[in-house]
Design goal:
102 residues, alpha+beta, YaeB-like fold, five-stranded mixed β-sheet, 41% helix
């Protein structure tokens, strides 16, 4: 099955704010993700429908779906490990997480 990675504008904006070396690591991680590799783990608890990609101390959160025989990985949130999960849980509680996923 073919895999396509879709990166949201939020993730793109985060990537452009990074210095060159972390940006390279993040791009490499996204390329590995498209190839079915990379440090990927399913999240726990209320964030269980989502997955995370680890690239150094940065995490990208994504969801998966299948459409017309193609696996689509939609990367909708990125941040540093220290804050990404607490921010995601706050967005989930406030109902704003659904807006990021669309």
């Amino acid at each position: 099955m073919k895999t396509r990675v879709v990166v949201s504008t939020n993730v793109k904006a985060f990537m452009t704010s990074l210095s060159p070396e972390p940006r390279r690591k993040l791009r490499r991680g996204l390329k590995e993700l498209a190839g079915g590799r990379g440090d990927v783990k399913q999240l726990d608890g209320s964030l269980a429908p989502f997955w995370r990609l680890r690239a150094s101390n940065i995490r990208i959160v994504f969801g998966q779906k299948t459409q017309a025989g193609e696996r689509i990985l939609f990367c909708f949130f990125a941040g540093y490990r220290a804050t990404v999960y607490s921010v995601l849980e706050q967005l989930l509680v406030s109902g704003l997480l659904e807006q990021l996923r669309d």
